[in-house]
């Protein structure tokens, strides 16, 4: 599904099939790196599945989809600039397929927004942020699996260092008025997300 979705999207803007295939190969290779356990092609697929539920509410579907594909293309546990690096690479690749400059800039801004997950004036960005965090509101079994996968991605850190950073991130979400930005995903995930986070915080303590 992911392959077809991406290739069909790119083919709307570029007739260079070899380029389209190479761009997909780059995305798939990056998201399949051995150090990744959660930020994988499965994460992209889950985000797109959730997004399809609100497709009629998204103003710029192509740009939102491209933001999904590129939002974690650069992902290093030791880096604090993954979003910035991902946005830069997205802009470079989108210029190669002749994607409109204004939409390319929007895509980069959407990717940058996934760093802080703050409410945006752009509704498409809010939907992207919500599907990026959808895992927080999934059933307890899926959430547990996610926490284990995230820990695997951060094995370079000792338990006490990881726990400290993780608690800070989770408390950041709990202190938000709402973890999710859109009515659809507030209704779908907010309550369970707060339960899941509270349980994980208890375990980390």
Key terms for this structure?
mainly alpha; 0% strand; 205 residues
Protein described:
The chain is an all-alpha fold and 205 residues long. It contains ten helices and no strands. The longest helix has 22 residues, at 183-204. The protein starts with a helix and ends with a helix.
Topology:
Blueprint: H1 2-11, H2 17-31, H3 41-52, H4 61-70, H5 82-96, H6 101-113, H7 123-132, H8 140-153, H9 159-174, H10 183-204
What would the average pLDDT be, to the nearest integer? 97
Question: Spans of 5+ residues with little confidence (pLDDT < 50)?
Answer: none
Number of helices: 10
- Helix and strand composition category: mainly alpha
Content of β-strand: under 5%
Strand count, sense and barrel status of the largest sheet are: none
Using the alpha-carbon principal axes, give the shape.
globular
Rg over CA atoms, rounded to whole Å, is 17 Å
What is the count of β-strands?
Answer: 0
Q: What is the helix/strand order?
A: HHHHHHHHHH
Query: What is the share of helical residues?
Result: 55-70%
How far apart are the termini? 40 Å
């Amino acid at each position: 599904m992911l392959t077809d979705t991406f290739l069909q999207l790119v083919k709307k803007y570029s007739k260079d099939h070899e380029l389209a295939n190479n761009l997909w190969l780059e995305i798939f290779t990056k998201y399949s790196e051995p150090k990744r356990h959660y930020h994988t092609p499965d994460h992209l697929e889950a985000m797109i599945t959730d997004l399809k539920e609100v497709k009629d509410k998204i103003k710029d579907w192509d740009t939102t989809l491209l933001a999904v594909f590129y939002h974690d293309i650069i992902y290093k546990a030791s880096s604090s600039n993954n979003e910035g690096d991902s946005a830069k690479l997205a802009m470079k690749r989108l210029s190669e397929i002749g994607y409109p400059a204004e939409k390319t800039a929007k895509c980069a801004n959407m990717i940058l927004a996934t760093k802080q997950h703050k409410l945006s004036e752009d509704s498409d960005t809010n939907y992207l942020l919500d599907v990026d965090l959808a895992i927080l509101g999934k059933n307890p079994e899926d959430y547990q699996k996610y926490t284990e996968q995230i820990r695997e991605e951060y094995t370079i850190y000792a338990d006490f260092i990881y726990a400290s950073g993780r608690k800070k991130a989770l408390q950041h979400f709990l202190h938000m008025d709402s973890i999710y930005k859109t009515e659809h995903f507030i209704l779908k995930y907010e309550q369970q997300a707060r339960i899941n986070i509270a349980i994980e915080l208890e375990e980390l303590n």
